[in-house]
Amino acid sequence: MSWIGKILGGGMGMLMGGPIGALLGGAIGHLFIDSQFEEIASTEQPGQQTGRRPSPTFSNQEQKQAVFFASVFAMLGKMAKVDGKVSQAEIKVVEAFIRDHLRLNKQSRMFAVNIFNRAKNEPYPYTQYASEFARHFHGDTNMRMLLFEMLFQVAAADGVIHSAEEHLLRQTIRYLNISVHLFDELKARLTPTADPAYAVLGVSPDASDDEVKKAFRAKVMEYHPDKIVSKGLPEEFLKFAEEKFKEVNEAYDRIKDARGLS
Q: So what's the pLDDT on residue 66?
C-alpha cells in the first residue's frame, strides 16, 4: 500500500478532514509515540534520502484507498465494542482477517490495529464512518457488500448476533444502500442446520436449478478479481475477494455434484 508508506514515512501530509482524517492522524501519532518512528521512516524507496522530507502528495486513488482502509477498521472496531466489550472471539476474527485474508506487512498491521483500537473509544459515532464510506463508494456495490460481510463476521464471532450488533448492521444496510437480503444470507451461514454451500450462494436448498445458477453467476460477478482490480483498491483486498471467489465456485461445484447439474 503506497499511501501507507507515504503518510508514515513523510509525516501527516494527508489533506483529509472529518472523522477519517482525525483517525488517520491519531493512529499515525500513536505509532510515533510508541517509538516506531525509526523503523517506519527507515522504509525508504530506492534513491530516497533519509531524514526530514517534504509532505508527500496523494493521488485521488490513494486517498480513496486510505478512506477504504480507515473506514473498514474503524467500523470493525465500533462493531466489536457496540455490545459493551470486545471479546477475544472478535479480536481473533479481526486478527485472522489481517493476517490470513489481507496478509498485511508489519507496518500495515500496526497501522490497522491502531485504527481499530482508537476507533473503539473515540467520540465519533459509527454512522459518520458509514456515511463517509458510502459517500466515497456510492457507485461500488461490490465494495459496500464486502465491507458489510466483514462487519457481519465480527458481529457473529461468538456465534450470536446480539441486539446492539443487529441494530448496527441494519443501520449499515441503510447507509450503504445494500439489499436487506444480505443480512439473512449471512445469518444463514451461522445456522447449524443450513447447508453451507447454499448459504454461500445466498439461496435455500429448495431453490430451483435456474435460481441456483442465477445466484452463482451473480456471486461470481460480485467477487471476480478483474472487477475488484478495476476499482483501484488496495491489493490486499483483492486477495480477500479472490478467496471469496474461490469459495463461491467450490460451493457451486458441491451443489452441481449433488444435483447432477452439468
A: 80
